[in-house]
Every structure is written in C-alpha cells, then in structure tokens.
Design goal:
Layout (H helix, E strand, L loop, with lengths): L7 E5 L2 E8 L4 E3 L6 E6 L2 E6 L1 H16 L5 E7 L4 E3 L6 E3 L3 H6 L8 H15 L4 H6 L1
Parallel strand pairs: 2-6, 3-7, 6-8
Antiparallel strand pairs: 1-2, 3-4, 4-5
C-alpha cells in the first residue's frame, strides 16, 4: 500500500474514500488547473505539486487494487486552519472535516459483504499476499 501513497482509507456503505494528507500551513494559492500550488506562512513560501491530480490517480489505483469498479472517492486533507485563495477547491478539507464529508453521503452503494471483500483486498495488498487466496479463507 505504500506504493499507492495513500495516507488513509475509509470503507463505508456509502463509498470508499482515499485520504491524502498534505502538511502545509498558512495561506495556499490553489489553482485547480495548475501543476503547482503555492503555500506561504509568515514570510516563507514554497511550491508543491497540485495534490488533486495525484489523489485522483491514487484513488483509481486503489480501486483497481481492491476490485471496486465504482464508488471510490478521493479526499485531500490539510492541517486545520489552512486558508485557501481564491477559494477552497472541491475535495479539499481540514483534517477535522473528513468525518463530516464521509457522512454527507446517504445512499448505500456497497453491501457489508462487498466491504468485507474490499477489506480483505486491502489487507492482502498491504501484506503482499495473493488476494484470491486471502479472500477464499
């Protein structure tokens, strides 16, 4: 799972959510169509790759890894108190907002059996096991 570079995964009947955590503070200039974003705090600044682009790719790879054809969503989390300009992009949240974002979905798309299958796929992938052998046990 380390090669997917995903910091957290939430399995719920309402979807599978991949969380990518970005550790920047202060003001972030978030150009959703740009390659780079700019973070500044108290006179220092730095540029970093647009995390939205990477999170979509990581969510897609996770979906392939566990065999989910739909319902995998990506979330990018930032430290609490980060300020975005010109505005907060979709799928970007403070760490404390992630549970609220997950709970806002109300239509079940996965059964408990499917979630158990996905959980086994995650376990198998993270421990280097053959998934077909793991799900059969």
């Amino acid at each position: 799972m380390q090669e997917l570079d995903i910091d957290g995964v939430v399995l719920s009947p309402f979807g599978i959510f991949t969380c990518v955590c970005i550790h920047h503070e202060g003001d972030i200039e978030a150009n959703i169509s740009g390659e780079m974003w700019h973070a500044s705090k108290e006179g220092s600044s730095q540029f970093f790759l647009n995390p939205l682009n990477a999170s979509k790719i990581r969510a897609s790879k996770l979906a392939d890894c566990i065999g989910a054809s739909c319902g995998v969503r990506d979330i990018v989390t930032f430290n609490n108190g980060v300020r975005f300009y010109p505005g907060r992009p979709a799928n970007c949240f403070d760490n404390s907002q992630v549970p609220i974002e997950v709970m806002r979905y109300t239509q079940c798309i996965f059964s408990h059996e499917q979630l158990r299958y996905f959980e086994q796929g995650l376990y198998a992938a993270s421990h280097g096991l053959n998934q077909s052998r793991q799900t059969a046990s």
